[in-house]
Specification:
There is one protein chain. Helices cover 46% and strands 22% of the residues. By secondary structure, the chain is an alpha/beta fold. The chain has a single domain (11-207), classed as 3-Layer(aba) Sandwich (Rossmann fold), CATH 3.40.50. A hairpin with an 8-residue loop joins strand 9 and strand 10 (204-207). The relative contact order is 0.24. Pfam families: MEDS. Residues 27-184 form the MEDS domain. InterPro entries: MEDS_domain.
Length: 213
């Protein structure tokens, strides 16, 4: 994982080539304005991974999983075939949280047990892995800021020892008070940020170690 710093410059990339260029160890965040915006990005992340023969792990809320599965089905993908080929591993984010949250705080050992098991299964047949996680967004929505930041830190520590790309997303509606400081807290834990327009699910991507342009 590249080290975090406060360089003020961003490098911009077209969204149409972003997922093709993405590398292991990257921790990507999207702060989105509408569900459709986020789902378009997630769909691109998942389908590009499948077509690249990666194993894609998706830890999302039940409504988002249902919407994603509907889009995959409409695009001709079979969830059964993807699972059989070890190309797609969905998991309910609330269920995942219940496996390692203790007294409203992420337990590091239990977290490691969960994610190491998932990654080990995903890397079967020497596949590359990419993962999406929405657990942090759930904690953030509950105003559990400390637990959110801690979970991001646990993900970063795990990514340092395992070669895979991690993508997470937060609804913009969650940043209502002290927005600048709140966004900085989130962006400081990531190596890339997806900035989206109101009319597209995937617009421009900005590469930076920390901060907001």
């Amino acid at each position: 994982m590249k080290s975090l710093h406060t360089d003020s410059d961003w490098t911009k990339s077209s969204g149409t080539v972003f997922w093709a260029e993405i590398a292991p160890y990257e921790h990507v965040v999207q702060i989105y304005d509408h569900d459709d915006t986020f789902l378009n990005t997630l769909f691109a992340f998942v389908t590009d991974g499948i077509r690249s023969d990666d194993c894609v792990i998706v830890i999302a809320t039940k409504p988002h999983l249902e919407s994603l599965h509907e889009r995959l089905y409409e695009s001709g993908f079979s969830l059964e075939d993807l699972a059989a080929k070890n190309l797609y591993m969905p998991l309910d984010a609330e269920v995942a949280l219940s496996k390692f949250m203790v007294n409203d705080w992420p337990d590091a050992t239990l977290f490691l047990d969960l994610v190491s098991g998932l990654i080990s299964k995903a890397k079967k047949d020497n596949r590359r892995v990419r993962a999406f996680g929405e657990m942090v967004a759930i904690l953030w929505a509950r105003e559990q800021v400390g637990a959110t930041v801690r979970l991001e830190q646990l993900w970063n520590s795990f990514c340092e020892s395992q070669a895979f790309c991690l993508f997470c997303a937060y609804p913009q509606s969650g940043f209502t008070q002290d927005a600048v400081d709140s966004v900085m807290h989130i962006c400081s834990a990531h190596s890339k940020m997806i900035r989206t327009g109101n009319d597209k699910g995937l617009n421009d991507i900005y590469y930076k170690s920390m901060g907001i342009a």
